[in-house]
Amino acid sequence: MSYTIDMKNVIEQWSVFEANFDGPEQGNPFIDVILSAEFRSGTKSATVNGFYDGDGVYRIRFMPDSPGEWTFCTNSNVKSLNEKSGGFICVSPSAGIHGPVRVKNQFHFKYSDGKPYFPVGTTCYAWIHQTEELQERTLQTLSGSPFNKIRMCVFPKHYDYNHNEPSRYPYDGSLKAGFNFQRFNPSFFRHLEQRILGLQKLGVECDLILFHPYDRWGFSAMGSQNDDLYLQYIVSRLSSFRNIWWSLANEYDIMERTISGHSGTPSKVPGDWDRFAQIIQKNDPYHHLISIHNCMRMFDHKKSWVTHCSIQRMDVYKTSENTDEWRREFGKPVVIDECSYEGNINHGWGNITGQEMTRRYWEGMLRGGYVGHGETYVHPQEILWWSHGGELYGTSPSRIAFLKKIIEDAPAEINPISKSQDGIDMNWDVTVGTVGEDFFLYYFGFNQPSFRTFRMPEGKGYHIDIIDTWDMSIIPLSGVFSNQFRIDLPAKQYIAIRMTAIR
């Protein structure tokens, strides 16, 4: 087999190379045609699936993970698509391209190039199913926000405050006539791709929710064969996008007991999730992050295919305070994707204050985890960020941005402190995050001390800042502090102390 490398075909590392081919339209190409390609560069090789994109067009996408010359050859059960070959040049990435996110040091994250990644997420479940104008407004809002990850659904959502009909569907058919779950609507997926790439340009990771129970179209109950076909198709289309995370389900446990809101009829059974994960892993050569989200029943995140915990609050009030426990139990990064939403709607999960949202962020981050934002303020047109996107009206995003900068400025990832120092427990009554003995963040939350006594590691001197996490102010104290000392505090809530060792 001879390969021709087009010297004009230059792709940046971790960007997408796409090869397009003309093929058969008759029958059902989504099922009848098998297409894949093997990509090679030196001793490296990877096999990726192609997919049918309608109108007789077949596409193969590939995300190169290293610079150099890459070649490919196709394999298909259709003669006109078989043994097609070619190649391209991969060059080093430009600034801002860091590759897919990976797990780092068991509990944290980094990009593929080693740059630290601290997920500061938000949720807009059905934003791609709104008007084009509203979708553009969502991207504009994200561009000025602190959020670098967004949870969003593939399928449209039917729930309180979200009853609109989407402008496009993922399958041929209609709500009235029904849908053919074995014939995809390529225009829907092209639109989805456009929005994911729009997020990518903003540096926002797309945590893509593949299934959810809030459904009146039948997408939550297509049957096992169609579920598997859908997963293979969407992973084949999207896995080459570097900012993809796979979320098997939003509130998986509801899907195990209800279908379209009718109690007692499951649309999924427990074994489905392991099968779905295997399909994704088989068809995703890039090994993107993968997890699953709960409602009331915690998922077993110890399963080998789960890369990180995706968790909804498990108590009316206590949420981020569980981060330490979940780290110990599952031994993986803890992402509390739903800690409740800042807002004022009727549901208890959607009416916490901006102060409480900010507090939960601080608690989770200092305990070595990561917390997700959401907003559900009553709106005259029922345009709520949590589902529709649009604009943010709450008071927490600017405070989350303030915290994000503090976390990014730390010398490394923050982990929860060991509560005992020299056999004497000095920190049992306060949340503390540390980077070894070189960096400490104390967070007093609801409490309002007027002073605090500290005993720090022997032989270390520290610069100290008093941080008002709500007013977003940082007051440095003069001098160097060491051993045991007292600090006067403003006797108000939501105060933090940062101690940085002198090098």
Tell me the radius of gyration. 25 Å
Characterize the overall form: globular
Strand order of the largest sheet: 19-16-15-12-11-23-21-20
Please bin the fraction of helical residues: 10-25%
CATH class division of the largest domain: Alpha Beta
Unreliable segments of 5+ consecutive residues: none
Strand content: 25-35%
Straight-line distance between termini: 59 Å
Quaternary state of this entry equals single chain
What's the CATH superfamily of the largest domain, by name? Answer: Glycosidases
Helix count from the secondary structure assignment: 10
Biggest sheet features:
8 strands, parallel
Number of strands: 35
User: Which class do the helix and strand fractions yield?
Assistant: alpha/beta
Domain module count: 3
Assigned CATH architecture of the largest domain: Alpha-Beta Barrel
| CATH-defined topology of the largest domain | TIM Barrel
**Average predicted local confidence, pLDDT:** 95
Describe, in plain words, how this protein is organized in 3D.
- With 503 residues, the protein is an alpha/beta fold.
- The protein folds into three domains: 5-91, Immunoglobulin-like (Sandwich); 101-409, Glycosidases (TIM Barrel); 417-501, Sandwich (Immunoglobulin-like), CATH 2.60.40.3950.
- Strand 15 (205-209), helix 4 and strand 16 (244-247) form a beta-alpha-beta unit.
- The model has no long low-confidence stretch (mean pLDDT 95).
